[in-house]
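Encode chain A's predicted structure.
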Amino acid sequence: MLKTVDTQVALSDVTTALFELGVLDSVSEDIDLEKTLRNDLGLDSQEMVSLVDIAQSLASSRDPVDEGAFETVQDVVSYLAINRASWLPTDVPFVLQGATVINQSLETVFGYIANYRVWPEILDHVTKVETDYDDGKHQSFKMHIEELGTKRNYYVQSWRYVNYDSLIVDFSQPKPPKGFAVHKGGWRFRVLGSDRTELISYHGFSLEEGADADGSLELIRKHIHAALKTWARHGNGCADG
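Encoded structure for chain A:
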């Protein structure tokens, strides 16, 4: 039997995914678990592929999921209740995750993320970083951002926990972007082979009352994809990382 807490968290993930795909009008909309995805909710083939991609992106395993495995809302909820990555937050309504593969060693890829001081040289949306505290494991810094698309400039205060032994880099933002009540996330690393590492990025957030949920999901999804694409290009484009 699925744990109740896992089922509720998984249902929240599925509701967010269906909202992001435009199937639901609100993330607070109640949804019947027995409804079929195609016939009752009206998902077309492309939306089904996108739903499978979103569900799989939140899983700890990268084993492929067949679209035919998801017929009802309950099928997707059950999949996430069992397979949802253990490091993902359960105390915020919105959780997104993405991953890429970099042809570099684990040590090199971990260094990309741990050494935030060089980010302005690599990440297009990071214009400046100011360190407040850094003992190698606990870090506090201000990251100045030029928002992708709008070119709006602002900064966020980030607190990070870095643990190489556990392959963890986690962050929280006591001063999140406008409209966000809570914004946190992190990075995970998986060795796939010699000089081949999977880099995983996840974000969890809640919004202030009246904030644009659709626009916020789009913004965070865009930042995840842009960062992963940049790190993959950076790592795969030079022999020494």
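The radius of gyration is 18 Å.
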